[in-house]
Structure formats: structure tokens, C-alpha cells
């Protein structure tokens, strides 16, 4: 699937009436003109979490990236919220990874 280019000329097709948020995924590219139109209408731009994760991963070491991914999986897919449990699970997983 190709990328979708959102410009000031076509952005209205992606915005519903009374919409307060526009969700943008990794397959969408917003031009600065489209961003201006969105902001002028008082709409917040919400980027897909996978896009945020991709941006974050570029600034961390490999182990830090793995740790962030493990924490995200534990929280989002397994509903873990206790920081001590998350830390313990991460340590177990990272120890296992390092042994291989």
C-alpha cells in the first residue's frame, strides 16, 4: 500500500464535521499546509503509536530499544501496570536474550 499525501487542497476529505482529532498513521504524509488547515480548525493531530516508536528507536542503543519494546508489549498486550513487575519481567527477558 502506498503513502497518502494530505495537502491543504484535500485535507477536508479526511476531516468529519465536529471532529476534534485527526488520527494519522505511518502511511500518511501531512504537508505543512495541511497541518496549518488542521490547526486553524482547532483539530489535534494524533500520530499512530508505531510511528512514534519508530522515531524513538533511532535515538537509543539496541538494548534500550529492546527494553522499550518489551515494556510496551507488557503494558499494551498483557495489561501489566506494576512498575516492579514490569522491571522484573524485562530483566528476565533481557537475561535470556543475552544468553543466546
Provide a descriptive summary of the structure in words:
There is one protein chain. With 100 residues, this protein is of the alpha/beta class. The chain folds into 2 domains: 4-48, no CATH class; 60-99. 50% of the residues lie in helices and 14% in strands. The chain has helices at 32-40, 49-57, 62-76, 83-99, and strands at 4-6, 21-24, 28-30, 44-47. The strands form 2 sheets. It has a two-stranded parallel sheet. Strands 2-4 form a two-stranded parallel ribbon.
Secondary structure layout:
Layout: E1 4-6, E2 21-24, E3 28-30, H1 32-40, E4 44-47, H2 49-57, H3 62-76, H4 83-99
Parallel strand pairs: 1-3, 2-4
Helix pairs in contact: 3-4
Low-confidence stretches: none
Instruction: Enumerate how many helices there are, as a single number.
Output: 4
Number of DSSP strand runs: 4
Cα shape: elongated
Mean pLDDT: 82
User: In order across it, which strands form the biggest sheet?
Assistant: 1-3
How many structural units, i.e. domains? 2
- Compute the CA-based radius of gyration: 19 Å
Helical residues, percent:
40-55%
Q: What structural category characterises the helix and strand content?
A: alpha/beta
Question: What order do the SSEs take from the amino end to the carboxyl end, as H and E?
Answer: EEEHEHHH
Amino acid at each position: 500500500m502506498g503513502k497518502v499525501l494530505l495537502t491543504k487542497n484535500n485535507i477536508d476529505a479526511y476531516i468529519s464535521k465536529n471532529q476534534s482529532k485527526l488520527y494519522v498513521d505511518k502511511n500518511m504524509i501531512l504537508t505543512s499546509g495541511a497541518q496549518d488547515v488542521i490547526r486553524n480548525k482547532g483539530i489535534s493531530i494524533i500520530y499512530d503509536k508505531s510511528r512514534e516508536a519508530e522515531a524513538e528507536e533511532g535515538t537509543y542503543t539496541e538494548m534500550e530499544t529492546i527494553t522499550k519494546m518489551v515494556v510496551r508489549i507488557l503494558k499494551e498486550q498483557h495489561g501489566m501496570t506494576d512498575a516492579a513487575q514490569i522491571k522484573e519481567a524485562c530483566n528476565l527477558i533481557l537475561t535470556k536474550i543475552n544468553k543466546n
